[in-house]
Design a protein that fits this description.
The protein has 14 helices and four strands. The protein is mainly α. Strand 1 and strand 2 form a beta hairpin. The longest helix has 29 residues.
């Protein structure tokens, strides 16, 4: 909104300072400051409101240390995150940018699904919340929207590297000439529609989903939609499972979003994209503004969500965080980096699947179920081993920072 307003002011009146809003870096700085202030200032009021309305978390007794002390802590705090993301994005982002539009739709969509789940838990007093099949339907629906938009929108393109022969003429002392032709790689000025993505650790680091379908347009679209559905569902559920300790998913997500912001900026800058040999994606740099708002929202929410938590984000926050990360990665065509970047989410999800699968297998084979972990997700396993909650959370933050650094290193390790 500010971008369009100050652009008009700059063109019409040449008002001093109005041109600063044309710079992504300036608007990203404004977005992160605004989101931090919104989360910290309005977060206190939202917590007080939820406490007055007795919108508290129902805690099941799982035998975990300090668990029952959290009973009654206000939940649905994801509303703070959504507010702190959407308002700065609307103010500082370019609303005519297709990627910003896609991220706003994704944020609202998953926020509604998570909000409905929390509403059923709190107000209908149904501990299971929204049935799993309905959550899946919502996630699949978002995957279809994202995949179809990425496939059909004329504004979503990339510019690839092409080879150009360069002829050099050498003049010898005797007056004769010699010609030498070399190939120079440069980014084309022509934008193309493609379903290419980035493969880490490989020199020629692009892969086209269309290769798997033999170039058939309908089959390629269906495959890409299935990929989008899988990524959105996997990452959003992974974040949801990780949300089990005070400040855990919030702190783990900050390095993830920082890396995605860096990758978006580099992919949207023709010079850096050329130097790093990554796809140049026109207009994608605008997502840095959204990512900045997300970072500010997460850090601001951590002000109240760190141990001992004054508020829980609920599914309103955790599903939205995971879904935002997934859609963001799809937009910048780095979804194959997510198993590394979101390694914490991956391990948490795998711990649940392995625990449930092994329990069912041993029950069928031996007549009684056996467990691999003391409890899943894996952060509860460490709790039952006697580790303090804050130690577990901080160690997971450190691992997330390490994985984020390793993800950035993939830009050079090929």
């Amino acid at each position: 909104m500010f971008y369009h307003f100050f652009r008009f002011i700059d063109q019409a009146y040449n008002f001093p300072g109005s041109g600063m809003f044309q710079y992504i870096s300036f608007r990203a700085a404004g977005a992160i400051i605004a989101s931090l202030l919104i989360a910290v200032i309005f977060g206190r009021s939202i917590i007080d409101f939820l406490r007055r309305k007795q919108i508290g978390e129902e805690i099941r007794d799982l035998g975990l240390d300090g668990q029952l002390q959290k009973r009654g802590t206000p939940t649905m705090g994801g509303v703070i995150i959504l507010l702190a993301v959407l308002v700065p994005t609307l103010l500082f982002g370019r609303l005519d940018n297709i990627y910003i539009q896609l991220m706003i739709v994704s944020t609202v969509w998953l926020g509604l699904i998570g909000g409905l789940d929390d509403y059923i838990k709190v107000f209908r007093h149904r501990k299971e919340g929204l049935k799993g099949k309905f959550k899946i339907v919502g996630q699949v629906g978002l995957g279809i929207i994202v995949g179809t938009t990425m496939w059909l929108s004329p504004d979503i393109t990339v510019r690839e590297k092409v080879t150009q022969p360069v002829e050099t003429v050498f003049v010898n002392p005797d007056g004769s000439t010699e010609q030498s032709i070399q190939l120079r790689f440069l980014i084309s000025s022509e934008a193309v529609k493609t379903t290419k993505t980035t493969i880490p650790f490989i020199k020629n680091n692009t892969f086209d989903y269309g290769w798997l379908t033999g170039g058939n347009d309908v089959a390629t679209w269906l495959l890409y939609v299935l990929v989008a559905i899988f990524v959105v569902t996997a990452v959003s559920n992974g974040a949801n499972l990780t949300d089990g300790l005070d400040g855990l998913v919030t702190g783990v997500s900050v390095p993830i979003v920082v890396v995605l912001a860096v990758l978006a900026y580099l992919s949207g800058h023709i010079v850096y994209a050329d130097y790093l040999n990554i796809m140049y994606i026109p207009q994608i740099g605008e997502l840095m503004v959204f990512a900045a708002a997300m970072i500010g929202a997460l850090v601001g929410f951590l002000w109240y969500n760190s141990f001992p938590a004054q508020i829980f984000m609920g599914d309103t926050g955790s599903l939205s965080i995971g879904g935002i990360i997934a859609v963001f990665a799809l937009c910048i065509r780095k979804e194959l980096l997510l198993p590394l970047l979101c390694g914490i989410f991956l391990v948490e999800s795998c711990s649940v699947m392995l625990q449930v699968g092994y329990f069912k297998y041993t029950k069928r084979k031996y007549g009684e179920g056996r467990r691999i972990l003391l409890m899943s997700p894996v952060h509860h396993h460490y709790q039952l081993k006697g580790q303090f909650e804050t130690k577990i959370v901080i160690r997971f933050w450190i691992i997330s920072l390490l994985l984020a650094a390793m993800t950035l290193v993939t830009l050079k390790i090929r």
